[in-house]
Design a protein that fits this description.
The chain is α/β, with parallel strands linked by helices. Helices cover 58% and strands 12% of the residues. The chain starts with a strand and ends with a helix. The model has no long low-confidence stretch (mean pLDDT 95).
């Protein structure tokens, strides 16, 4: 099953690889294929100082955490996503957060499910009738269910 990872999920996993989110990304390869856009890499780099401050990890440990998380995610250049999906995503997120266009576009392109911790995004998408989003709690349940097959 393909799961699209947005920035807040990757941020949380890098912050603490032993957390529930970290565990899901690092230990679910038999159940999920994680995908994201290059935009996620840019966002993590942009917020590196905050990540370092919050994590209280030194550079070596934080880079190792980042490497572990990234090696479990397949990355695609968002410009490879056909324009029709980017336009569709724009219509879905224009009243929520335009920074999420690439994740929703990739989600549509891959015919997958978007994993996010962004409550405003989840609520906003669901208000439009869009239900291809999943929370961390739902991810744990889904892994438990699919992993038992």
């Amino acid at each position: 099953m393909i799961i699209i990872v947005d920035t807040n999920i990757a941020f949380s996993a890098i912050l603490n690889t032993k957390s529930i989110i970290g565990d899901l990304i690092l230990n679910s390869g038999n159940v999920f294929q994680f995908w994201s856009c290059h935009y996620l890499l840019e966002e993590i780099d942009k917020h590196w100082v905050k990540l370092k401050k919050v994590s209280k990890l030194n550079d070596i440990a934080l880079h190792e955490s980042q490497r572990l998380v990234y090696k479990n995610i397949n990355f695609i250049d968002e410009y490879q996503i056909p324009k029709v999906y980017r336009l569709q995503a724009y219509d879905l997120v224009k009243g929520i957060d335009l920074n999420d266009i690439v994740f929703v576009a990739l989600n549509e392109y891959q015919e997958s499910v978007l994993w996010t911790g962004d409550k405003a995004l989840i609520k906003g998408l669901k208000l439009t009738g869009y239900d291809k989003v999943i929370t961390t709690t739902e991810m744990v349940k889904l892994r438990d269910t699919l992993g038992k097959r």
